[in-house]
Amino acid sequence: MHLTKEEEEALDGKYGRALALAYRVLVAIGEATEAERLVNVNWAHISGVNYNTIGDAGINFLEDLVKDESAKVMIKATLNPTGYDPNKSEEIDSEFLEKQSRINKAYEKLGVTLSYTCIPYEAFDINQFAKKGSYVSVAESNAAIYVNSVVGLLTNKESAISALASALTGKAPLSRLRIKENRNAKLCVEVKYEMKDELDYGLLGYFAGKLNEDCIAFEGIKQESIFSNEPNSVANVKALCSALGTSGSVGMFTLSYRKVKERYEFNKIEANKIKDELSNADRGDVILFGSPQLGLNDLSRLSNMLMGRKFKKRCIAFCARSVYMKAKKIGLVDKLENSNVSIYCDCCSCLTPLITKDKYDSVITNSVKAAYYLRNWNKVDVCLASMKNIVENESI
Q1: Which DSSP helix (H) or strand (E) runs through 187?
Q2: Domain 279-394: what homologous superfamily?
Q3: What is the DSSP letter of 211?
């Protein structure tokens, strides 16, 4: 892989230990993915924030990294959710709080924007730091798929360490989905199933994600059902992106399918198989919304569905704090709280210590991604249903 003189000097340690480490990571990835060179990136979104994700080894790595004066981000860098809402920490044990705080402080020292969101495409005006067609480095899987497919940015589905390396260097390997020719689908999923709501799009995404291609085409989806600003459309495309990223290595989808010869069919039988795989309960002790986190459209959609009704059991909705502040300003937060919805910021329903088997036997959610992680990590049973069905069956 070709490096410029400055990149070679950074790799050799001329500009500090942290920068040298970051370049070693990028060069190793570049060689593994047959990249010819590194390119400049305008934005990095970093995962590897939640203590339940990176553990003590991750803390030690970050705290050692920030000891080097060269360890500062060179571009706009945003951050994935943590494990809890600092304004509602009474449910979290002290050890987790202490270790999560150390992670947060390390990223702050690096100069990362402490956004704590998995929906940076809704929490920020991305055009301010990454124009359409520009190279970026996004580690959160749903966000990588979304910005590739909807926004028109160019990123691979990055890891926590590779996105951090890009943030520190402003560089990323020119490979895979950063090469325009690779953004053409090699296989197509023919949707022969009535797509009614966000749950159906989540089931479709989970099915397609298992096919493990960088870019997948869909035939049978109406453009306006996922590519408009309507609340239902926003919910559908987020559900699709998050589920695609959960079950496999897909980094992008497209509705351009005419030249694709390899085809798979998604029908009612396949949808039911996926639902049976992820949903193993008929009820739940708590309702969870927010994986990915809810945006302003999602909060408005939930409020409109409730229309003064109240949930009969505890309901937790997760959103970015920037979204929460906007929702608070226009009265959405008060409406939802009056309907027995507790809104948590800076975290999401995946990998949170808020939801444990000790507290809940089962949960109700509309998120396929949440269902996967709640069953496999939190070890709780899951009842999968659409937001509309949850509101109809669980509120009065």
Answers
A1: strand 187-192
A2: Aconitase, domain 3 (3.30.499.10)
A3: T
